[in-house]
């Protein structure tokens, strides 16, 4: 299909018809405004639909994105971050997929995939990146609040300025707190701190 409006309409129809599972690769650009899609997704979560999202770091660079993800997680969404999300993708009920025809600055065309070998491959790709990705939020008993964002930054490679915008603080403050956190974890590097945080259960699965 072609045209941003057509893609947005088809995605909305897909969300509305989802009954059991929804797997999503989330990365900009977006054909549908989050204000339009989020209420539908939350409604599905309340009805018991299993929603899994693999987010690109730039997905959380949008103002309020981390708070939205946290609210969705409270309703049951399973959210993870991966440094290299290859494309946008939505798979509903393991039987229908929607993905852009091309990567670019705008979503002006999409491919609808029904049960076939391509759909099987897309589902396998999602499962692979899901296993590689790191959780956005901590397990019970781990640090909360700002530490969540800092641990996420360390484990998934979020840029310091993106974290600063989410926390409403300065990049300098974020960097100082990350240094403090790496010291607390006895890590030599930021990457090692993220690995240690995940191994110790400070990031939720």
Your description of this structure?
It is a single chain. 47% of the residues lie in helices and 15% in strands. The protein contains 8 helices and 7 strands. It has helices at residues 4-17, 34-46, 65-74, 117-132, 146-156, 160-167, 171-184, 190-199; strands at 21-26, 50-55, 78-81, 89-92, 96-100, 110-113, 134-135. The relative contact order is 0.14.
Number of strands: 7
The CATH homologous superfamily of the largest domain is called Endonuclease Chain A
Low-confidence stretches: 139-144
Tell me the radius of gyration.
17 Å
Proportion of beta-strand residues: 15-25%
Describe the biggest sheet?
A: 7 strands, mixed
* Secondary structure tally, helices: 8
GO biological process, one term: regulation of DNA-templated transcription
Protein name: HTH luxR-type domain-containing protein
GO molecular function: DNA binding
Summarize the structure.
It comes from Actinocatenispora rupis. By secondary structure, this protein is of the alpha/beta class. It contains eight helices and seven strands; from the N terminus they run αβαβαββββαβαααα.
Write the layout of secondary structure elements.
Elements: H1 4-17, E1 21-26, H2 34-46, E2 50-55, H3 65-74, E3 78-81, E4 89-92, E5 96-100, E6 110-113, H4 117-132, E7 134-135, H5 146-156, H6 160-167, H7 171-184, H8 190-199
Helix pairs in contact: 5-6, 5-7, 5-8, 6-7
């Amino acid at each position: 299909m072609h045209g941003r409006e057509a893609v947005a309409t088809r995605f909305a129809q897909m969300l509305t018809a989802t009954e059991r599972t929804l797997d999503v690769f989330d990365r900009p650009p977006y054909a549908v405004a989050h204000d339009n899609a989020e209420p539908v997704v939350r409604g599905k979560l309340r009805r018991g639909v299993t929603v899994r999202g693999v987010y690109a770091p730039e997905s959380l660079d949008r103002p309020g994105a981390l708070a939205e993800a946290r609210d969705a997680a409270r309703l049951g969404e399973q959210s993870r971050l991966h440094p290299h999300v290859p494309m946008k993708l939505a798979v509903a009920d393991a039987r229908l997929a929607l993905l852009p025809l091309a990567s670019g600055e705008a979503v002006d065309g999409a491919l609808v995939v029904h049960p076939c070998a391509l759909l099987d491959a897309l589902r396998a790709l999602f499962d692979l990146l899901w296993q590689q990705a790191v959780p956005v939020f901590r397990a019970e008993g781990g640090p909360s609040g700002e530490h969540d964002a800092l641990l996420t930054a360390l484990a998934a490679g979020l840029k310091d300025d993106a974290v600063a915008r989410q926390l409403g603080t300065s990049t300098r403050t974020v960097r100082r707190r990350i240094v403090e956190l790496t010291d607390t974890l006895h890590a030599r590097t930021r990457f090692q701190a993220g690995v240690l945080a995940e191994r110790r259960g400070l990031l939720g699965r």
